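Lab meeting, item 3. Inverse folding demo.
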């Protein structure tokens, strides 16, 4: 069970939250000009990385606000929690050097 630190309400049990998937996905710059391949990539293609992963979470049973979480997918350790619109924090990821 994860203990997630809501940036607005403080630490709560993970059952209070809903994961919204990968964070920082960029919408096509000119949506009207985007082809099917660009839209398909935007909607469906995710990194699904092992190690450090940036995700969107909603405090659905609390303040109902969205925020971002930097979490290690191997250990479930949460490295950082930050509000939407803030830049993602730099986190050292030891698994990246092994896989590259």
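The presenter then showed the designed sequence:
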């Amino acid at each position: 069970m994860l203990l997630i630190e809501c940036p607005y309400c403080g630490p709560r049990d993970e059952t209070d939250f809903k994961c919204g998937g990968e964070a920082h996905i960029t919408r096509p710059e000119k949506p009207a000009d985007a082809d099917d391949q660009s839209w398909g990539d935007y909607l469906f293609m995710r990194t699904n990385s092992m190690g450090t992963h940036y995700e969107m979470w909603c405090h659905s049973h609390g303040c109902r606000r969205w925020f971002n979480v930097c979490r290690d997918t191997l250990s479930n350790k949460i490295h950082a929690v930050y509000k939407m619109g803030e830049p993602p924090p730099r986190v050292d990821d030891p698994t990246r050097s092994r896989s590259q």
